[in-house]
Amino acid sequence: MSLVQTVDQIEYPESDGMPLGETDLHRDWMFRILEILRLRYRGQRVYLASDLLVYYEEGDLTKFVVPDDFVVKDCEPGRRRTFKIWEEGKGPDVVFEVTSRGSRREDQETKPELYAALGVKEYFSYDPTADYLRPPLQGYRLERGRYARIEPDEAGVLRCEELDISLRLEEGELVMCDGRSGDVLRTEAEAERMARDAERTARDAAEAARDAAESRAAELEAELQRLREELKGGPRDE
């Protein structure tokens, strides 16, 4: 029996042994970005993942990177244990990193260089605490094999061209909007909650309008009855 393991027989680890996120806040934002993108791309041929090992050299178990969130367009959705670029035929188009104290250097130095080499077209870093990035929201776009900083507009908005999404901060929190409509992108749970709130508001408004109409009708009926009484008890001819 041959002791040489073939490329096809290699088992690629599914964990890098590192904890998922550094704090509850960072984990929450990793998952929230993923859920926002899941709702946006539901039913489309787009693969989305968070904290998944991305292997980029077949046969080498050390050649991997673990983005916090990434998007692969024109790629079959569905569950994967790892993402192997040579099997998929392409790598991530856009990556999002939620920067923390432990990941600051990697997010700003190591990963951008690797992502550029892998052809990741756009790369965004967000620091929800504003302690480790200045500014706390940064974006980069691949130009001639290297990343160039995406400059914000006068309102501080960064544009993700690959996903047609705008990104900005409101009171330190990341807000993602549709690039055409300007509508704020939300998770499914947030969208459902807003729909329920809108339905409740509409129902309350309808009930208030109905109550007001009934009250006004009662006032008019009372006034009409008063006029009738006046006519009945009016002055008699002498």
Word description of this protein:
The chain has helices spanning about 25-40, 85-90, 105-120, 190-230, and strands spanning about 45-50, 55, 65, 70-75, 85, 95-100, 120-125, 135-145, 145-150, 160, 165-170, 175-180. It is of the alpha+beta class. It has one domain (about 5-185): tt1808, chain A (Alpha-Beta Complex), CATH 3.90.1570. The strands form 3 sheets. The chain has a 6-stranded mixed sheet, with helices on both faces. Strands 3-2-5 form a 3-stranded mixed sheet. Strand 2 and strand 3 (about 65) form a beta hairpin. The longest helix has about 45 residues, at about 190-230. The model has no long low-confidence stretch (mean pLDDT about 90).
Order of helices and strands: HEEEEEHEHEEEEEEH
- Biggest sheet record: 6 strands, mixed
Q: How many domain regions? A: 1
Instruction: Report the β-strand fraction as a percent range.
Output: 15-25%
What is the structural class? alpha+beta
Spatial arrangement of strands, main beta sheet: 1-4-6-7-8-9
In the CATH hierarchy, what is the superfamily? tt1808, chain A
Give the proportion of residues in helices. 25-40%
Task: Figure out the total of helices.
Answer: 4
Overall geometry: elongated
- By DSSP, the count of extended strands is 12
Please give the alpha-carbon distance between the first and last residues.
133 Å
What's the alpha carbon Rg, rounded to whole Å?
29 Å
Low-confidence stretches: none
CATH class type = Alpha Beta
| CATH topology heading | tt1808, chain A
How would you state the average pLDDT, rounded? Answer: 88
CATH architecture: Alpha-Beta Complex
